[in-house]
Specification:
Elements (H helix, E strand, L loop, with lengths): L14 H31 L5 E3 L11 E7 L2 E4 L3 E3 L4 E7 L5 E6 L16 E8 L4 E6 L4 E6 L11 E7 L1
């Protein structure tokens, strides 16, 4: 008796095998894309929106004047840096709905909350300004990074602070 005939050679890949191979190749890419999208969304949502600094034309050593808009709950500066060891004219306008204040803390001071803020940290208090009004003052600071804050109770804890660069 003759041995059984050999199975014919497979000349095509069954549909289910083709489908599974495609999924094995692209499924991890889809999962990675989804994970990266979720991370990007989470980062975008968690961006600190309390500090808004808009850049504008600035001399290499920093601006000799500074305009600042005070709103709820941010400072918007027209320049990313002011000049060191120079009298810098500051004009601040309250574009918010409640009274605000413009004060500068010494370089390196960054209290965790209002209860940690003390008078020794304040090196300049340019005063309070009512909604829709402006006020002005002068700053003359050595080079460094300072923190501009609103001293109205509850405002600093609401996030009303912004770094101020003083360039040499």
């Amino acid at each position: 008796m003759d041995p059984p005939a050999a199975d014919p050679a497979v000349t095509h890949i069954p549909y289910k095998t083709q489908n599974a191979a495609w999924l094995n190749l692209f499924a991890p890419l889809v999962v990675v894309s989804l994970v990266l999208s979720v991370i990007a969304l989470a980062v975008a949502v968690n961006v600190d929106q309390t500090t808004v600094i808009q850049s504008g034309p600035v001399a290499a050593t920093g601006a000799t004047s500074l305009n600042a808009d005070l709103g709820e709950w941010d400072f918007i500066f027209d320049s990313p840096a002011i000049a060191a060891d120079t009298d810098v004219a500051v004009l601040f306008t309250n574009v918010g709905d409640v009274e605000h204040n413009f004060a500068v803390l010494r370089s390196g001071a960054n209290p965790a909350d209002e209860s940690k803020l003390d008078d020794g940290m304040i090196i300049a208090d340019l005063g309070d300004v009512l909604p829709g009004e402006s006020s002005s003052g002068t700053l003359n600071l050595v080079a460094g990074t300072y923190l501009v804050v609103c001293l109205i109770p509850g405002h600093y804890n609401s996030g009303m602070s912004a770094p101020l660069e003083v360039a040499a």
